Every structure is written in structure tokens, then in C-alpha cells.
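Review form for a predicted model. The reviewer records the input and the model, then writes brief findings.
Reviewer: anonymous (R2)
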Amino acid sequence: MVPARYSRERRLTARMALTMVLLAVLYGLLVMPFFQISTLWGLVAVAAVAVLLTAQFRYADHVALWTMDAREVSAAEEPELHGLVERLCMSSGLPKPRVAIADTDIPNAFAAGCRRDRGVVCVTTGLRERLDMAELESVLAHEMAHLAHRDVVVATIAGFPAFCGGLIITTVSGLLLGEGRPAARLAGVVLLPMVPLAALLFPVSLLLNLAISRQRELCADRTGALLTGRPAASSAALTKICAEIESAPAGELRELRPLNGLLTVPARATGRAVADLVSTHPRVEVRVRRLTEVSQRLASGRR
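Model under review:
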């Protein structure tokens, strides 16, 4: 786990706690209608939620690697990359994650996996070509901080109500508007009362998930900078990655967008900042400013 001597930012912790409370309310709303039908239906709904969440936990890393067409590499294949990861593991006390490479020219990285001992850290070939060793280590430290904080678990739990809301809306629409049998249309009519709840769950859960994602990125930036002791290298890496993404072809960016929430810097077609409320990450300018504050604290002997 991340060394305990690294203090947490109280404002981030407070915002995170409030967001999680609101998320708990959403989970209550998700299963409450089923308990109104009967206790048995309510228990079935809780069991279904548990099964779907477990499946997401189990296969999150495999889906992420498949989406990026990434491959795991051994220490013999990539001794330099594995050496950096091993050094960070010694600094953090984390078990060593698997290491993977995605063959794309756009510089970026991500971490996935709900278990610290089975996590994976993936970098693109473009990242390795454009960053120096200190900057590459800072990006790896950021991604390993996500594993240390179990951010994939948090993101899965936070995004699940939105997933359920979207699934309900899509299913009911397909049953009612499709050319299926009368029984299918009847099922759509029976499920129709769930649509208003789904319409509430989807946007509210999505906004909460995005808020949590932005907070976790700031936490990972800070923890990663403390692990390496070089916040300036983290700032330089973020700035370089952002500049490359802003100039990258739109077609190449589209391949990365399914994993925007996991990437070090999200892929977008232009350099314009996405509105804070609907972004998976804080603006790079905000992240660099926070890293500068970390650098100043380190210079003064404070954590």
C-alpha cells in the first residue's frame, strides 16, 4: 500500500466522502422498487447487482487490455520498463503489477484491475518514445497510485447505477419499439414503470462518477509525485502528453476514447477544455498547479 507517511488532502477526502454518500442513496433507489413489489423480488435485485458487479471486478483489466489491443510483456522483453515498475513497488510497498504495452503513437498510459496483486499497468509505444526516464517513471507512479487507491473498484461501483439505468432504457425501448413477439411487447409494458427511475439514475450516477473520477486523478497525481519525489517531472509529462493529444489525428483519438476514464490524460479531438462538470479528469492546468503546490511543500520539508 502507499506509505502512510504521505498525508491526505482533507478537501479531497471530504468531497469524496460526500460523493460516496450520494452514491449510496442511488444504490438504494436502484433496488427500492423491487422491495416494493415483494421482499423476494428485492433480494433477487440485490443478488443481481452483486453478480454484475463481481463480473465487472473480475474482468475489468482484461476488457481494458482488449480495448487497447495491448499485450503483456515480460521482464526479458522490456527490462527497462519492468525496472521502473519494480523500483516504484519498493518505494510504495505495492505488489508488482503486470506490465503491458499498447502499440499506438499517441502517448498515454492506464492502470486496470480491482486487485492490487493482479493489477496491470499499460503504456503506449508513443509514451516511451516521447518522455525521458524521469517523466516515464512519474506516469507509471501515477498509474500505480490508482492501483494503490483501488480506483478501478471505486469507478466500477460509482458507474454501476448509470450502467443499470442505461440498460433498462435500452431494453425497454427495444421491447416496445422492436418487431418482436407480442410477449416481448408485453414485457416492455410491464417494465415501463422502471423507465422514469432509470432516467433519473443514468444522469445523476454519471455526474457522480465523473466527480469521483476527477477527485481520484488529483489524488493519484499527488501520490505519484510523492512516490518519485519529482513533482516537476509529473508536470512536464502531463504537459507533453496533453500537447501530443491536442495535435493527434481525430481517427487515432477515437481508438482511445473508450478508456478515457482510465487514461493518464483523456483523449479528445481538440485542445479545448471539456466543461468541468462532464469531464473524467481535471484540466491539465489545474493538475499542474496542484503538482506545483506539492513541489513547494516538499521543498519546505512538508508532505
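Findings: Confidence is low (pLDDT under 50) at residues 1-7, 269-274.
Further findings: The beta strands are 70-72, 98-102, 109-112, 120-124.
Recommendation: see findings above.
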